[in-house]
Design a protein that fits this description.
The protein has helices at 11-34, 41-52, 59-66, 70-82, 104-128, 130-147; strands at 57-58, 86-89, 99-102. The protein is mainly α.
């Protein structure tokens, strides 16, 4: 099957562009939702990574889990610490890499952010359909794994 020479007609190019657009829309919606709480989407996202972890993690591990750079996550963690929403704990495995954890105030603000998000999430799920969302999750996870955790894609001729 011959594909169009238009690079934007390739199905994966179209998917990537829509994922980028969705990311932008999610960030804009998130910024609007959590602004009354003194948060941005970036701060809320990092708080979510901290809250999702069963144990406190250093910034480098939070960044790895989020697929972001340590520097960008460190900047946000520092902002959250200045707001009193996260605190640092000693790391028994590394002297300088402190563990990040939500403070009580951080837990409260995060819970309030989730309460603002849930109605929108429910509405989006209802409009897309639970099965379609589940299938999209599987597809996105598969593509992300194929690209590799470090963002370097494998040789196109290799097998997954």
């Amino acid at each position: 099957m011959k594909r169009s020479t238009d690079p934007f007609a390739h199905p994966l190019s179209r998917l990537a562009l829509e994922v980028f657009r969705l990311n932008g829309a999610l960030i804009a919606a998130g910024d609007g939702l959590v602004a009354p709480l003194g948060l941005t989407s970036a701060r809320w996202q990092v708080m979510g990574a901290v809250a999702q972890s069963p144990e406190p993690l250093p910034t480098v591990q939070l960044a790895r889990n989020m697929g972001l750079t340590r520097q960008s996550v460190q900047r946000v963690v520092d902002d959250l610490a200045a707001q009193g929403l996260v605190a640092f704990a000693a790391n028994p495995h590394h002297k300088r890499a402190k563990l990040v954890q939500l403070t009580e105030e951080g837990k409260d603000v995060f819970a309030r952010a989730l309460a603002l998000w849930t109605p929108l999430a429910d509405d989006l799920l209802a409009s897309a359909g639970e099965r379609a969302v589940a299938e999209a999750i599987v597809l996105i996870e598969r593509l992300r794994a194929r690209l590799g955790a470090d963002g370097n894609h494998p040789d196109p001729g290799s097998t997954p």
